[in-house]
Write a structure and sequence with these properties.
alpha+beta; D-Maltodextrin-Binding Protein, domain 2; four-stranded antiparallel beta sheet
Length: about 425
C-alpha cells in the first residue's frame, strides 16, 4: 500500500464548521480577568509526572493568583471522548493528551486544538523541546506529526523498559538476562519453578507494547516509515510482524505469558509486579517513580529490552490547549511552569525523565541511570514510537487481536490478517488514498 495523506470531505467539513486555529491566533473570545483555570491530566499522584505537575499547579496559583480547578481523568476517558469533549463547553483550558497522528494529529486537523506557535516563540519552548522530542508536538494541516505547526508541548520523555524483581531472580538462582537467549532461558526456568515470568495486561497497552518491541527487533527504517508515516508498503506478512506475533504465541504456549491476562488492564499488570506476583514487567518509564515509592523494600532493576536496535517510546504525552478555551494565555503560562527548572528537577528526583532539569540537581542514583539510558536512546536515534498511532481505532483493534491470540481463538495468520485489515481501513478512513 503506497499512500499519500489528504483531507477527506468529512474532515474538511468539520474543520470548516469549527474554524481552524490560525498561526498562533484564536477565534475563541478570551475571558477578561479570569479567576480560575481548568486543568486535566491522568497521571497518578505518586508518579513522577503527578508529583511534578502538582507542584506546577501550586507555583501557578502563587504566581498568578488564579485558582486551579484540577480534574483527574483516566487515560481511557480522555482517549475515548476527547473529540466530543473538546467540541463542547465542557472542555478544560489545558490538558494532557496522547501524541501521534491518530490522536493529537487528528484533533489538530479538525481545529479542536489551539495553534501554539506564538506561545512557543514567547516562551522559547523550542529551545527546550527540540529534535525527536519536538516531533510529537508538531502537526501539518493533514494531522501528520513531525512538521508543521505546534499543537502540543511535552516536558518529559518516555520509553518502554523491562523491569526485573531482582529478589525473585535471586530466590530462584536466575541471572538478569542481557540477550534474547538469556531472556527466554530465564523465563523457562521460572516456569519450571512454577512461576509465570511476565506480568501482562492484554486488555490495554502492555502486551501491544511488547508485540511492537518484538516487531522493532526485526523492522527496517523503511518499514517504520511506511507504518507510521504512510510512506510506502506495510508488509503485514513479512518478517517483522510475523516474528513478533509468532513469538507472543510461543510465549503463551510455553507459559511465559498467562492466558488469564486477557482481561487484565495496565494497572492490574503493574500492581501484580509491585506485589511480587511476577518477576518481570515490560512497560513504560512512567511506572518508574511509582516503583520507587511502592517497592521501596524490594530489590528491583530495569534495562532496555535485550538486543534492541529500536525501542518503543517517544517524547512524553503533550500538553494541549483546546481551541474552545477562553483562558489560553493562562494555559500557556501553566505549560511554561511545567518546564521550569524547579518542576523539572522534582520530576527527575521523583523517578521521571525530565527534558530540562539540571543534571547536578538529580540526587537519586537510580534515576540518573534511567536518564542516562534514555539519553543513549536519543543519541542513537532509537525511538521506535508506538504501534497504535497510525489510526484512531487501532489501539482497541490491536488489543482485541492480541486477546484472541493469547486466548487461542485466532492463530498467527488470522491475527496478522485482522491487523492488516484494521490498519488499512483505519488509515483510509483517516484520509489516506491507496495507489
Amino acid at each position: 500500500m503506497k499512500a499519500t495523506r489528504k483531507f477527506v470531505a468529512a474532515a474538511l467539513a468539520v474543520a470548516t464548521m469549527i474554524g481552524m486555529a490560525g498561526c498562533g491566533g484564536s477565534e475563541t473570545a478570551q475571558e477578561e480577568n479570569p479567576t480560575s483555570i481548568k486543568i486535566w491530566h491522568y497521571e497518578e499522584d505518586n508518579g513522577a509526572q503527578g508529583k511534578a505537575w502538582a507542584k506546577a499547579m501550586e507555583i501557578f496559583e502563587k504566581e498568578t493568583g488564579v485558582k486551579v480547578e484540577f480534574e483527574k481523568k483516566s487515560f481511557e476517558q480522555i482517549r475515548q471522548n476527547a473529540s466530543q469533549i473538546l467540541n463542547s463547553d465542557e472542555a478544560p483550558d489545558v490538558m494532557e493528551y496522547n501524541k501521534g497522528n491518530a490522536t493529537a494529529g487528528l484533533l489538530a486537523s479538525q481545529g479542536l486544538l489551539s495553534n501554539l506557535n506564538d506561545y512557543v516563540s514567547k516562551y522559547n519552548w523550542d529551545k527546550k523541546v527540540s529534535g525527536s522530542l519536538a516531533d510529537t508536538g508538531k502537526y501539518n494541516e493533514q494531522g501528520i506529526m513531525g512538521s508543521g505547526d505546534w499543537y502540543g508541548i511535552t516536558n518529559y520523555g518516555e520509553d518502554i523498559v523491562m523491569y526485573y524483581n531482582k529478589d525473585m531472580f535471586d530466590k530462584y538462582g536466575i541471572a538478569i538476562p542481557t540477550t534474547m537467549d538469556e531472556l527466554e532461558d530465564a523465563m523457562q526456568k521460572f516456569v519450571d519453578a512454577g512461576v509465570t515470568p511476565l506480568s501482562e495486561g492484554v486488555a490495554e497497552y502492555p502486551l501491544q507494547h511488547l508485540w511492537w518491541q518484538l516487531v522493532l527487533q526485526k523492522a527496517s527504517d523503511k518499514f517504520l516509515k511506511a507504518y507510521e508515516m504512510y510512506d510506502g508498503d506495510v508488509d503485514w506478512q513479512g518478517e517483522a510482524t510475523t516474528y513478533a506475533t509468532k513469538t507472543i504465541k510461543d510465549w503463551v504456549d510455553k507459559g511465559y505469558i498467562s492466558k488469564d491476562s486477557t482481561g487484565l488492564k495496565a494497572e492490574d499488570a503493574g500492581q501484580n509486579f509491585i506485589k511480587g506476583s511476577y518477576p518481570m514487567f515490560f512497560s513504560g518509564t512512567w511506572w518508574f517513580g511509582r516503583f520507587q515509592s511502592d517497592m521501596a523494600n524490594t530489590n528491583w532493576t530495569f534495562s532496555l529490552f535485550p538486543e534492541s536496535k529500536k525501542v518503543v517510546g517517544s517524547s512524553g504525552n503533550i500538553w494541549v490547549i483546546p481551541e474552545n478555551s477562553k483562558r489560553k494565555d493562562l494555559a500557556a503560562k501553566f505549560i511554561d511552569i511545567t518546564l521550569s527548572e524547579e518542576v523539572q528537577n522534582l520530576m527527575g528526583n521523583s523517578g521521571g525523565l525530565p527534558i530540562a532539569a539540571d543534571p547536578d540537581k538529580i540526587t537519586d542514583e537510580k534515576t540518573k541511570e534511567l536518564i542516562t539510558s534514555f539519553n543513549g536512546v536519543l543519541k542513537d536515534n532509537a525511538l521506535g514510537f508506538y504501534p497504535d498511532w497510525p489510526t484512531s481505532t487501532f489501539y482497541d483493534e490491536l488489543n482485541s487481536s492480541l486477546q484472541e491470540l493469547v486466548n487461542g481463538t485466532s492463530d498467527v495468520k488470522t491475527v496478522l490478517g485482522q491487523m492488516e485489515d484494521n490498519y488499512n481501513k483505519g488509515v483510509e478512513a483517516a484520509g489516506v488514498k491507496q495507489q
